[in-house]
Amino acid sequence: MKLSSNRHLPRNLYTPEQVKNSEKWAAQQQGLSLFELMQKAGEAIFELIENCFFKEKTLCILLGKGNNAGDGFVVARLAHAAGWHVELATMPGCQSWSGEAQQALAQLPDRVHFKNAESCDFSSFSVIVDAVFGIGLNKIVKPEWSVIFDAVNQAGRLVISADVPSGLNAHTGDVMVNAIKATHTVTFIALKSGLFTADAGDYCGEIHFAPLDVAQHVEKANQAYFRLLQLSEQKFYFKPRARNSHKGQFGRLLCIGGDRGMSGAIRIAAEGALRAGAGTVSVITHPDNVVQVSQGRPELMVYGVNGVTTEAKTLMQQADAIVIGPGLGRSGWANGLMQIACELEQNKVVDADALHWLAEHAVKKNNWILTPHPGEAGVLLQQSSSHIQHDRYAAAQQIQARYGGVCILKGHGSLIASSLDTSVCQAGNPGMASGGMGDLLAGICGAFIAQGFAPTLAAELAVVVHAQAGDEAAKQGERGMIASDLMPFVRQCVNQAIES
């Protein structure tokens, strides 16, 4: 059975409910029983184990009480036949099984030993297989189970999770109090939405996909509301420009922000827009900031305005697209500029302080990109940021439904929610958790809508370019990385088609 890994995963993501509801039908369409499907799942896990080199072939399989345990029994049988020393560690209250799991148990040889997980020394094994929950978890992990998960995580051994790391919500990516940190996750039949956002990055390890010969039937039976952004596909949109080109063809972008004493954010956004290919970039900022914004970047046309002046209105009307919010503040100066910007028909990117204005005024537009981090998303939905992180998919979709346009919910597994679906970006790294990164993203978004990309596509391209640039910059180390470090790599990313 061939496993697909991180770089070659399918595009569509599904909820665990979708997979669960169509699993039996999909198996029938392929002429398989659920027990045969379980056999294939166990084989996929053991295939991964066999592909790793271990001096000592000692295997512990951590068992729950559902069909995920059945996958573990299949692995145990195959490993024992291949000469591994296998022990089965049962979670508290999980000493009996039924259905397909019982069938798989009946095929085990007598020499496979059972023990209680509470007394297991996980560090004495080469490999630990997590076959506890799978996609079935819908409540917080019990304290006595959490202690066992901690023991597995502290053992320092290679851990392979069956389908989904136990304790991770397969739909949202939220950890239900505690979860097993896998080195590898082998997920079956279809990719689950929770494997790619929120806490998932710290728990899934490398993700492998095993279709079990039925994936095509599950796709046929379900609509995919979520999808992975395929980084390679973005190159199509960055083809070489015509030789007979001029700056007017690539958009006039206006960036608005930088109240008194806050020049940095709007400067980063504006320079990011230049590096992402905007034809011209103008900046409206507080008069005190003109020198700071323009210094060292003479390509920017910087205007210091005292509120909603005739000059400011003219600049807004002449722009092909507008970015508003970085360093905008929440003063009367900011409120007036935001109100006028909202009345204009140009495509817009609304970021940072402008999102706070939007939360108070609840305007809905179909031609803007909103770029909240979890805290700003909480303001937009009148929820706490922790509540947002518990279900990032729902939050992104609710913001889009309430305010229109496209919502980019930033964070691990950034989400881009439109009226049609939600896409997820796998790229990016923790080094990007520093001030100014969001301003840079806003500028890149603005550059793309100014160049004529529709808001949804502009948002997806911007998130991918931003994340890829961050990953390139992080090759010199994540800690201490700043937004300005990404600038040369933004330029590199939007020239990929030329370079390849």
From TrEMBL:
<feature type="binding site">
    <location>
        <position position="327"/>
    </location>
    <ligand>
        <name>(6S)-NADPHX</name>
    </ligand>
</feature>
<comment type="function">
    <text>Catalyzes the epimerization of the S- and R-forms of NAD(P)HX, a damaged form of NAD(P)H that is a result of enzymatic or heat-dependent hydration. This is a prerequisite for the S-specific NAD(P)H-hydrate dehydratase to allow the repair of both epimers of NAD(P)HX.</text>
</comment>
<feature type="domain" description="YjeF N-terminal">
    <location>
        <begin position="19"/>
        <end position="220"/>
    </location>
</feature>
<feature type="binding site">
    <location>
        <position position="438"/>
    </location>
    <ligand>
        <name>AMP</name>
    </ligand>
</feature>
<feature type="binding site">
    <location>
        <begin position="134"/>
        <end position="140"/>
    </location>
    <ligand>
        <name>(6S)-NADPHX</name>
    </ligand>
</feature>
<keyword id="KW-0413">Isomerase</keyword>
<feature type="binding site">
    <location>
        <position position="265"/>
    </location>
    <ligand>
        <name>(6S)-NADPHX</name>
    </ligand>
</feature>
<feature type="binding site">
    <location>
        <position position="68"/>
    </location>
    <ligand>
        <name>K(+)</name>
    </ligand>
</feature>
<feature type="binding site">
    <location>
        <position position="163"/>
    </location>
    <ligand>
        <name>(6S)-NADPHX</name>
    </ligand>
</feature>
<feature type="binding site">
    <location>
        <begin position="410"/>
        <end position="414"/>
    </location>
    <ligand>
        <name>AMP</name>
    </ligand>
</feature>
<comment type="similarity">
    <text>Belongs to the NnrD/CARKD family.</text>
</comment>
<feature type="domain" description="YjeF C-terminal">
    <location>
        <begin position="230"/>
        <end position="497"/>
    </location>
</feature>
<dbReference type="Pfam" id="PF01256">
    <property type="entry name" value="Carb_kinase"/>
</dbReference>
<comment type="similarity">
    <text>In the N-terminal section; belongs to the NnrE/AIBP family.</text>
</comment>
<keyword id="KW-0630">Potassium</keyword>
<feature type="binding site">
    <location>
        <position position="439"/>
    </location>
    <ligand>
        <name>(6S)-NADPHX</name>
    </ligand>
</feature>
<dbReference type="InterPro" id="IPR004443">
    <property type="entry name" value="YjeF_N_dom"/>
</dbReference>
<keyword id="KW-0067">ATP-binding</keyword>
<dbReference type="InterPro" id="IPR000631">
    <property type="entry name" value="CARKD"/>
</dbReference>
<dbReference type="InterPro" id="IPR029056">
    <property type="entry name" value="Ribokinase-like"/>
</dbReference>
<keyword id="KW-0479">Metal-binding</keyword>
<feature type="binding site">
    <location>
        <position position="166"/>
    </location>
    <ligand>
        <name>K(+)</name>
    </ligand>
</feature>
<comment type="function">
    <text>Catalyzes the dehydration of the S-form of NAD(P)HX at the expense of ADP, which is converted to AMP. Together with NAD(P)HX epimerase, which catalyzes the epimerization of the S- and R-forms, the enzyme allows the repair of both epimers of NAD(P)HX, a damaged form of NAD(P)H that is a result of enzymatic or heat-dependent hydration.</text>
</comment>
<keyword id="KW-0547">Nucleotide-binding</keyword>
<feature type="binding site">
    <location>
        <position position="373"/>
    </location>
    <ligand>
        <name>(6S)-NADPHX</name>
    </ligand>
</feature>
<keyword id="KW-0520">NAD</keyword>
<feature type="binding site">
    <location>
        <position position="130"/>
    </location>
    <ligand>
        <name>K(+)</name>
    </ligand>
</feature>
<dbReference type="InterPro" id="IPR036652">
    <property type="entry name" value="YjeF_N_dom_sf"/>
</dbReference>
<comment type="subunit">
    <text>Homotetramer.</text>
</comment>
<keyword id="KW-0511">Multifunctional enzyme</keyword>
<keyword id="KW-0521">NADP</keyword>
<dbReference type="InterPro" id="IPR030677">
    <property type="entry name" value="Nnr"/>
</dbReference>
<keyword id="KW-0456">Lyase</keyword>
<dbReference type="Pfam" id="PF03853">
    <property type="entry name" value="YjeF_N"/>
</dbReference>
<protein>
    <recommendedName>
        <fullName>Bifunctional NAD(P)H-hydrate repair enzyme</fullName>
        <ecNumber>4.2.1.136</ecNumber>
        <ecNumber>5.1.99.6</ecNumber>
    </recommendedName>
</protein>
